[in-house]
């Protein structure tokens, strides 16, 4: 770690504004692709993008579970869980020190917020999540852009925890204890 990174402050307002803008754009892309999937793929044959590897395929019946169609039939429960996770990620984002050292962690929060919000919108307003991206090569469950955001955010979080934020005090900002002066 470069000590200068931790000392180089960033504007908290600018970080929040830029992050909010990225979340809005990512959620728009997620919702727009779901709209297109419902309009052009529902009830139709899959569209092969890369033959034998990648298809666009509307998942029917719709996903009333969580990521990749797991735990079907608990829509209200998962809507509430999504809202709680969304609030938790916002809380973490707001607690992150606004300096260069924590930019990767802020990016992880932006990805996870975008994915959580994209699928939460579906659960609250539709009662289900639209999934339409299918890796036929490995018969992977059908998913959507919001799932990609959450999974990429989770993978990056693990990588950063193991390889970047290894010091004991790197996550002290999440502590409820008062700092001693």
Please tag this protein with its features.
mainly alpha, elongated, 5 helices
pLDDT average, as an integer? Answer: 88
SS-based structural class?
Answer: mainly alpha
- Strand count, sense and closure of the main sheet? 3 strands, antiparallel
How many domains would you count in the coordinates?
1
Question: N-to-C terminal Cα separation, in Å?
Answer: 23 Å
Radius of gyration: 19 Å
Tell me, briefly, the overall form: elongated
Low-confidence stretches: none
User: How large is the count of helical segments?
Assistant: 5
Strand segment count: 3
**How big a fraction of the residues is strand?**
5-15%
Q: What series of H and E elements makes up the topology?
A: HHEEHHEH
- State the helicity in percent bands: 40-55%
Strand order of the largest sheet: 1-2-3
Walk me through the topology:
Elements: H1 3-7, H2 12-40, E1 47-50, E2 54-56, H3 75-95, H4 103-125, E3 133-135, H5 145-163
Antiparallel strand pairs: 1-2, 2-3
């Amino acid at each position: 770690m470069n000590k200068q990174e931790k000392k180089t402050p960033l504007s908290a307002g600018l970080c929040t504004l830029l992050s909010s803008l990225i979340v809005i754009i990512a959620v728009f892309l997620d919702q727009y692709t779901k709209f297109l999937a419902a309009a052009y793929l529902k009830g139709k044959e899959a569209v092969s993008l890369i033959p034998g590897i990648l298809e666009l395929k509307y998942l029917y019946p719709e996903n009333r579970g969580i990521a990749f169609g797991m735990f079907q039939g608990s829509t209200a429960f998962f809507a509430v869980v999504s809202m709680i996770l969304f609030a938790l990620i916002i809380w973490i984002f707001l607690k992150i020190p606004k300096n260069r050292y924590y930019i990767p962690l802020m990016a992880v929060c932006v990805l996870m917020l975008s994915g959580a919000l994209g699928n939460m919108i579906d659960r609250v307003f539709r009662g289900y999540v639209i999934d339409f991206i299918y890796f036929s090569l490995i018969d992977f469950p059908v998913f959507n852009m919001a799932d990609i955001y959450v999974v990429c955010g989770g993978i990056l979080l693990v990588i950063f925890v193991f390889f970047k934020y290894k010091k004991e005090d790197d996550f002290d900002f999440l502590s409820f204890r008062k700092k001693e002066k």
